[in-house]
Amino acid sequence: MQPKQSIAATDKDVKIVSLISVGKHPQSGRVRRADQDSRAVELGMKLLDTGDSTRGDSLVVLHAGDPKEPGLRGYAGMGLNSVRVLELDPAADAVAPLGEYLQQFAPDIVLTGVRAEGGESSGMVPYQLAEKLGWPIVPRVADIISVEAGVAEVLQALPRGQRRSLKIRLPFIASIDSAAQDARQSAYGPASRAMMDIEVVDSSTDQLRESWSEAPAKKRPKRLKVIKAKTAAERFKAATAKSQGEGGKVMQNESAAEQAQAIFDLLLEEGVLR
Amino acid sequence: MTDQNSFDVLRRDPRAERIIRNRLHPLHDTYINTGAGGELTEVRGPSGLLRKNPHNVGFIGPNGIKRIDRLKGNAAASGKGRRSSAAQETLLPLHQVENPDFYVVVVPDMVGGRLTGQDKDVIGQAHKLAAGIEGNGAVLAVCFGQSKEEHFDTAGVDRLLLLDDEGYEGYCPEQRLAALVQVESAYKPPFWLFPDSVDGGSDLGSRLAARIGERPAAQAWQVNNQTSICRGAAGTIDITRTTPRLLLLAQECADQIDETRHEALPVELGSVPTVIAKLQDQGQVAVDPNAISLAEAEFILAAGNGIHNWDQFHTAASVLGATEGASRVAVDDGFMPRVRQVGATGTWVTARVYLAVGISGAIQHMQGIGQCDKVIAINTDAGCDMVKRAALSTIGDSQEILDELMKLVQQFRTQQSEGGDQDAA
């Protein structure tokens, strides 16, 4: 994973849209650029960075919501000329106008975060957009390695620090994992200079959501170890006994080769040897 | 069963007991004087005193230790009988659902082919939801890929749909989604439950929700048939809402099933159309194992005081593709950096396989590996705590065993590359 990889030159320019949302700092609750979304912007900028400053406009950074949100300036400060905003009521459903916009604009790659940092944060937006547009979705992308001849090679982040390589035909939607490269620093000057390219759209209010009630997260109770002993002896044993493993296989008198073979078989069975 | 019982049940012989107690009984000698060698244990001496031969008293117990039964067969045998009956495994009551009216469908992650803790929580939640609906419902688990799980019955699976064709191997969310859509049309379940995890449950659940047009409750952690509480805004708020049909459940959402046994009857699904996949799985990419943080590494090779050849240890780790760990002693002695320390004062690891070489297992270290699934120990001391904890222990010189193990792995790798099997795992 080299820090700088750009798209190999192809016959047609790749259009990339990065969807952004307003983030919230997990501890202070302060408005900021969302972590995963800014990584998505970073990835988009990296992919389109050919060293040619005249070609900076193919990355479209798109937000649906209130254009006056200060959080959006955080993205603009990464060096964007403009941020496109579909202005709609904060209580409205953003998926429908986003879908329409993307259908018209017809980008090749749409980048989003995995989950928003505010609101429901169910992570459903990329899936709903993919369903609406009929495009494939790749969740939890760590990096896009190459886009060549209409096929992208994507690295997907798996749990436990593993990576999976996927090939996918354009156009597609990718949600960017926190394992992707860190977003570059946001600068105040460019942030305030960037243009907000506003388009007012109509959308229906999210009816279902109005019936929900929200409260600050309660600490979840820790699961207790319930002892279901029927007799006093069992209760006593459960309270005092040191929990020992069920006792595995012990190989004491075998030769080193046999012992190694047994370990090897177990490793193979568990599928940790790759 | 009956044969075993005839051995287990203690048959007392009251007459024999009475004779043994009564030293003046004419038959007393025949009952009491049957020592180990067949010689007499009690003899009248020349002065008329009763003489005992201590070498002939007692019998060899099951552990090979000599036992003297001072209660003359009255109590010891009965105690033994009770103990053996207590050791008998109690069979949990079987929960049967015949001709279920509806199915609550659970799609477990099955990481490594086994149910995870979260999967079992979700199955427990499914039973709670099924109990809240009128009629008798069954919990149907839809499992993809090869299964190594043996305890579907005690985990609470009433019906099991195992889809382990080749088409479901690897990363194929589109094909799996097609199967789930088929399940949806075949069973019309009142609830779909997925674990909201990074192991694929969240992905598959979101795909199905988008396809069937349901709005799922994500990160739901307290669910009943009417309302559910979900974590929103990246875990900072609780959203209380009516329970939707499709739920993505957080960890520890409900208690696991532990008091009943279930049937886990296999069910069949009609043919699922083969989807032309837009995503092509190219297999997993080799990652530098030491770049992965110790806390989330999957396979750890840990070294302790018993390691003398450190060069060999590092080579072994790179050959096996394992993340390196160490016990406190190895770190204190300067052989490993502090970040590699496993245990209470170091890192609490969650590895699936933990290979401990020359670590005897101090309690602080055992706390650190508490969440590991399979522990393998290589040690010279067969009595140490690590051997007691391990699923497989080899007693011997670690250097030799590691040498042999590296040879085997290298052989395996060359075979694999010759076979051109690129996307293993």
Your description of this structure?
The complex is a heterodimer of chains A (274) and B (425). Chain A has a domain at 16-206: 3-Layer(aba) Sandwich (Rossmann fold), CATH 3.40.50.620. In chain A, 27% of the residues lie in helices and 26% in strands. Chain A contains eight helices and 13 strands. Chain A has helices at 35-48, 71-76, 95-105, 125-133, 188-193, 207-210, 232-240, 256-270, and strands at 16-19, 22-24, 31-33, 59-65, 82-87, 109-113, 137-148, 151-157, 163-169, 172-176, 195-200, 213-216, 249-251. In chain A, β7 and β8 (151-157) form a beta hairpin. Chain A starts with 15 loop residues before the first strand and ends with a helix. The model of chain A is unreliable at 1-11 (pLDDT under 50). Chain B is α/β, with parallel strands linked by helices. Chain B folds into three domains: 2-87, no CATH class; 94-266, Rossmann fold; 289-419, 3-Layer(aba) Sandwich (Rossmann fold). Chain B is built from 13 helices and 21 strands. In chain B, α7 crosses α8 (201-212) and α9 (310-320) runs parallel beside α13 (398-419). Chain B starts with a helix and ends in a 6-residue tail after the last helix. At the A-B interface, α4, β7, β8, β9 and β12 of A face α8, β10, β11, β12 and β16 of B. β13 of chain A pairs parallel with β21 of chain B.
Averaged pLDDT of chain B, please?
84
Low-confidence stretches of chain A: 1-11
- Gap between N and C termini of chain B, in Å? 44 Å
- What is the highest CATH level, the class of the domain at 16-206 in chain A? Alpha Beta
Strand and helix layout:
The complex is a heterodimer of chains A (274) and B (425).
Chain A: E1 16-19, E2 22-24, E3 31-33, H1 35-48, E4 59-65, H2 71-76, E5 82-87, H3 95-105, E6 109-113, H4 125-133, E7 137-148, E8 151-157, E9 163-169, E10 172-176, H5 188-193, E11 195-200, H6 207-210, E12 213-216, H7 232-240, E13 249-251, H8 256-270
Parallel strand pairs in A: 1-4, 1-6, 4-5, 5-11, 6-10, 7-10
Antiparallel strand pairs in A: 2-3, 7-8, 8-9
Helix pairs in contact in A: 3-4
Chain B: H1 2-8, H2 14-21, H3 28-32, E1 42-44, E2 50-52, E3 59-60, E4 66-67, H4 76-87, E5 94-95, E6 102-106, H5 117-131, E7 137-144, H6 152-155, E8 159-163, H7 173-187, E9 192-195, H8 201-212, E10 217-223, E11 227-232, E12 237-242, E13 246-249, E14 261-262, E15 265-266, E16 279-285, E17 299-303, H9 310-320, E18 323-326, H10 328-332, E19 353-357, H11 363-368, E20 374-379, H12 385-389, E21 392-395, H13 398-419
Parallel strand pairs in B: 5-14, 6-7, 6-9, 7-8, 8-15, 9-13, 10-13, 17-18, 17-19, 19-20, 20-21
Antiparallel strand pairs in B: 1-2, 3-4, 10-11, 11-12
Helix pairs in contact in B: 7-8, 9-13
